[in-house]
Amino acid sequence: MHDKTASLGAQRTVAVAGTAALLLGWGWLAQGLPDYVLPGPVEVAKSTARFFVEPALLAHVGVSFVRVVISVILAMTLALLIASVVRRFPIMDETVERRILTFFNAFPSVGWAILGVIWFQISTPTVIFVQVAIILPFCLISALSGFRQIDPEMDELGHSLTRMRWRRFRLLSLPLVAPFVASGLRVAYGICWKIALVAELFGASSGLGYQLSRSQSVSDANMVFACCVVIVLIFGVTDRLFLKPLESRFSTNR
Q: What is the pLDDT of residues 108-130, one digit of tens each?
C-alpha cells in the first residue's frame, strides 16, 4: 500500500514538473514573437477566463457543450439499436461489420461537414448531424462488442422470465452491455469535442467553432488558443467527474 502511494505521488510530481516545464518553455518562446503569432501562457489564461465571466462567450461554450452531449447520446442510442438488430438477426452481421462500419470509418470528416451544410444549411441540426456521423462508428463498435459478450444462456433465462422484448432488453441485455457502453461514451465524447470545432466552423453561427472562425479572421491567436484551452478544460472536468467514474463503476461490476 505504501509503495503504491509513493508511486502515485511520484507520478503526480513528474506530471506537475512536466507541465511547469512546458509552460516555462512556452513563455520563453513567446517572448520574441508578437501576440498574433504566439501569445504567452499568461495572455492565453486571461482570454480563457473571459469565457467564464462574459455572457456572450459563456453562451458559445454552453451551445457547444449541449450540441456535443446531444450528439453523443444520439450516436450511442442509434448504435445500440443497430447492435440489437444485429443480435436479433445475425444475418445482418456482415452488412453492419463489413459495410456500414467500413463506410463510416473511411468517410472524411470534412465531407460530412460539407454535406451537412448542403442538406441542412447553417444550423444546429447541421452540427449535430456531422458529429453523430463521425462518432457513430466508435459507438457502434462498443455496442456490438457488448452484445457479443452476452452468454446465450442469459438469453434463455430472460425468455423464461418474460416474453416482453423491451423488458428483457431493459432489465437483462442493457445492464450486461453497460460496461461497453460506458467505455464507448467516454471515447465518443472525447472525439466529439475534437471535431466540434470543425463542425461548427462549417455549419454554425454560434459555438466555440464559430468563435474560433471569428478569431482567425482578425488574427486573434489569443482567442484561438483560449477556445482550445476551454475545450480541454470542459472535457477534463466532465471526464474526471462523470465519465471516468461511470466507466469504473460498470467495469468493476463486470
A: 888 888 888 888 888 888 899 99
pTM for this entry: 0.83
- Cα–Cα distance between 114 and 129 in angstroms, integer? 11
* CA dihedral angle for residue 44, residue 48, residue 49, residue 51, rounded to 10 degrees: 150
Q: Rounded distance, CA 234 to CA 243, Å?
A: 12
pLDDT tens digits, one per residue of 66-103: 999 999 999 999 999 998 888 888 888 888 888 888 88
Domain boundaries, the chain: 1-32, 35-252
User: And the C-alpha cell for 232?
Assistant: 480541454
What cell does 82 get? 443497430
* Homologous superfamily assigned to 35-252: MetI-like (1.10.3720.10)
Helix intervals (H) in the chain: 2-30, 41-50, 55-88, 93-94, 101-106, 109-120, 124-148, 152-161, 165-168, 174-203, 208-217, 221-238, 244-252
For the beta carbon of residue 105, count every other beta carbon within 10 angstroms: 13
